[in-house]
Inverse folding.
């Protein structure tokens, strides 16, 4: 747990992140609200428009590169500890968005972190990695305009970690991450290497770089921005920018999905039937009886079903608005109906995604140099 | 400073090591005395016979491999922060000894440690490294029966560091090394990788390995032995053995040579004239007047000139014994004469060494893939 926090807000990439109030992040961590920039973004995506992306650091630099058609990069990745789920979908869509809007795209398979943090051996994470990359490609990531790599096989990020080691005191590590074993600190240094890799000589040198992440990853950004500053003389690093998305609620209504509870989330490798069952069993913001719901309306703010529409499954913003105000709060729809509609949308998406993903498996193996 | 120590004995590979009493190391650190093994060693070298090598961990395992002509390895190295000097000469001779007695030899250029500990950039350490390797070859190391590498370019040791990270808590690091920046801890993990590299698959798997080092390097051995144990299931590591040599006194009589004081040591790249001057100016265990010295004898135990003969420059043990008892303690020689004789021996050695070293420079560049 991060020691510098005194409120209930905890941001810990290696533990559980609980955000009591996103507003507090602006004050406590110096994260800027994203909303004021929205009107300036040429073609904002759904997550931006709907406030799912709520905060940023130094996004102005990216905005300027987008507007002026200057070189910039987007960097994010996945920890290969399992199949793609709703959280990794979010990041993948954000990376793909920036790639389609002119960014050089970097996508890291964080298998060193999977090993250090989750004790997953490299042989096993390689299997997940192949599926994860196929998912990414199925979601529209263009490997010709991007660079996908595994930490364990990318010597340049390890060498950056070695370079950065000298710039981080033990006190800084403890302040940012709390007390952990050396492997986690080492993987944090490697993550800093990932984030600054797009600015190295091999990739045409310093450039604005945006890192779209969940708020739980912000400690890595703080560390990396500090290192970019410390090593600016030799490498001319530009401090990386970041955007922060909210974390989608778990299906049981709790603040974050958890691998320990398979009913709290679904992956895109599960069968549509299993996913449908999980959605049917999900918590909602509904009333105890249909009569009450029609009379008083339900509560979308605590409802994971609403979150699923908001984050991923309604294409049009007006559908989200109508769901929130009229259908849900207005009591025009019952949770059962709402779930059934969602199941149909999700099923269509998942079937189509699985079809595409299957086609990309060979390409994914090729990218990861797997057999 | 190592926190577990309460006496004046400090062992710190990243700081100053002061050994008040070598005997205490046996009690406090579990280092075994070397002397009882001496009679069993088929062909002990001068450092062994003369007590310069005073301690060991698990040397029995090496002895058994030597006697039975079984596979074993020797591993040591140099931090490329300058030219070869009397300390690195000691280690190089020990590595070469074991290589000539059947060991697969590994010699590491610790350029990551030079960067993390001494802030030496890799471009600069590469220059020192070439000279260091030429010195090693001039001293008889056979590259055909050995493996010489730089940490920064040997991915296998970095990958071992990543592997080991998970096995070391922050508390362990602090207990062994004290409070340092992350780079030093990372270089300690890489050193553990160096020490266990000879036991990896690429080098035909687990085998007894002896690491001949100065006592200041023992913390790395303790860490590595602990890691060998922790990761024994998957890798079948045999805990590395070690031998410890005493540190040769500085020319000013202080316990350890220091780069900060160029008069406290000499390198083999200095001219014979400069070396002669440094020896002439050296502290000795002599008496204030020639008359007193002849009458009372001098004190070899505090004398760096005696150390030079003992460690390196008398080939025959009986010459050392005669110097200690008769010439020095017996007052038969004055310090000026003793120094003059040493200057002649050192000059002959240095000239010959420089000639050989020059011939090996191209080979050294080839080994280090340098231009």
């Amino acid at each position: 747990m991060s020691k510098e926090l005194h409120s209930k807000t905890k941001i810990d990439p290696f533990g559980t992140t609980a955000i009591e109030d996103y507003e507090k992040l602006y004050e406590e961590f110096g994260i800027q609200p994203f909303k004021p920039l929205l009107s300036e973004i040429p073609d904002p995506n759904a997550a931006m428009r709907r406030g799912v992306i709520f905060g940023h650091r130094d996004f102005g630099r990216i905005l300027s590169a987008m507007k002026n058609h200057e070189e910039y990069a987007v960097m994010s990745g996945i920890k290969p500890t399992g199949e793609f789920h709703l959280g990794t979908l979010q990041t993948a869509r954000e990376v793909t968005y920036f790639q389609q809007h002119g960014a050089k795209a970097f996508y890291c398979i964080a298998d060193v972190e999977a090993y250090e943090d989750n004790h997953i051996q490299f042989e096993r994470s390689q299997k997940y990695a192949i599926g994860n990359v196929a998912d990414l490609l199925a979601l529209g990531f263009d490997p010709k305009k991007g660079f996908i790599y595994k930490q364990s096989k990318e010597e340049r990020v390890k060498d950056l970690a070695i370079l950065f080691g000298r710039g981080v005191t033990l006190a800084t590590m403890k302040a940012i991450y709390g007390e952990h074993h050396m492997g986690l600190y080492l993987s944090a240094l490697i993550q800093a290497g990932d984030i600054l890799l797009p600015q190295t000589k091999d990739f045409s040198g310093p450039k604005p770089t945006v890192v779209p992440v969940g708020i739980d990853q912000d400690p890595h950004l703080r560390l990396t921005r500090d290192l970019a500053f410390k090593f600016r003389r030799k490498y001319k690093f530009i401090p990386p920018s970041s955007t922060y998305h909210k974390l989608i609620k778990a299906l049981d209504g709790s603040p974050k999905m958890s691998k320990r509870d398979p009913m709290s989330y679904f992956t895109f490798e599960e069968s549509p039937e299993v996913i449908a069952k999980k959605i049917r069993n999900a918590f909602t913001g509904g009333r105890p009886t249909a009569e009450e719901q029609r009379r008083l309306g339900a509560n979308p703010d605590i409802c994971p079903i609403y979150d699923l529409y908001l984050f991923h499954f309604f294409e049009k913003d007006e559908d989200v608005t109508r769901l929130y105000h009229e259908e849900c709060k207005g009591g025009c729809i019952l949770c059962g109906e709402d779930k059934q509609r969602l199941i149909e949308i999700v099923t269509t998406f998942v079937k189509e995604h699985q079809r595409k993903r299957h086609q990309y498996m060979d390409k994914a193996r090729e990218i990861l140099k797997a057999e």
Summary: Strands of chain B lie at 32-33, 53-57, 73-78, 104-109, 146-150, 209-214, 241-245. The two ends of chain B are 40 Å apart (CA to CA). Confidence is low (pLDDT under 50) at residues 1-7 of chain B.
